[in-house]
Design goal:
8% strand; elongated; mainly alpha; 239 residues
Length: 239
């Protein structure tokens, strides 16, 4: 879709709503209609194509731990975003890019930081259960810690999915339309900016089952919805 045509139609539609000059408004409306018909476009397509999008980068290891990718999928679901694993430049650090409606992306990034920090904070209170105090136990302790993080992340992700399903069932038509448009904007941004990129599939982690179950239980203490309530505008404000 030609962005110049879209922007031209959008300006004509804005002028058509102007109360200052009825003659100019009518001419603008007529011209906008003519362009819509010529290029076989709908008003919805024009609004979507002209909508703003954004992306933000979350620094991570070159091979992100599995728990982090689960948290990314959780915030994607919660804020109708898209994500990829990428480098900021050819020699730059590895990062996860979150893409979508600007307010959604902002809230998703804040929530991702909040969830990761919350899991690690609770884990510090479980050091006696996650740490073996003997020589040559570093690898085992790392496995326990990552298993705990993964269990907590899986619990958070499950809670987000359940909340999203419940919200969808109770949403009115306007809210459902907002969600669909938000997702469409995120997908459009991804297709335009990162057409050949995607999140890599990671192998299933080797787990310490006791640490995983402990993390899964503690993950229920973390509320993924709370962090964005203090933002000046919620995700819907982008619409």
């Amino acid at each position: 879709m030609d962005r110049e045509i879209v922007q031209r139609i959008k300006k004509l539609l804005e002028l058509a709503k102007s109360p200052c000059n009825e003659y100019e408004a009518a001419r603008a409306a007529e011209k906008a209609k003519e362009l819509l018909e010529r290029y076989n476009l709908s008003l919805g397509e024009v609004e979507l194509a002209a909508a703003e999008s954004a992306e933000t980068h979350f620094l991570c290891p070159q091979r992100p731990p599995r728990y982090l990718t689960v948290l990314v999928h959780a915030v994607e679901t919660l804020f109708d975003c898209e994500s990829i694993l990428m480098r900021e430049d050819l020699f730059g650090p590895t990062c996860i890019a979150l893409c979508g409606v600007p307010q959604n992306v902002e809230a998703a990034a804040l929530t991702l930081h909040y969830l990761q920090d919350s899991i690690k904070t609770i884990a510090r209170g479980r050091q006696d259960l996650l740490t073996i105090k003997r020589k040559n136990s570093r690898r085992m302790n790392l496995k326990r810690r990552l298993s705990y993080y993964y269990g907590a992340a899986c619990q958070i992700h499950a809670a987000v999915i359940a909340a999203k399903i419940n919200a969808k069932a109770n949403a009115d038509a306007n809210r459902q339309a907002i969600v669909l448009v938000s997702r469409a904007i995120a997908k459009r941004h991804m297709a335009e900016k990162h057409p050949h990129s995607k999140m890599r599939k990671l192998p299933s982690p080797s787990l310490d089952s006791r640490a995983f179950l402990l993390g899964h239980m503690d993950g229920a203490k973390i509320q993924p919805h709370g962090v964005h309530r203090s933002l000046p505008a919620g995700p819907e404000a982008a619409q």
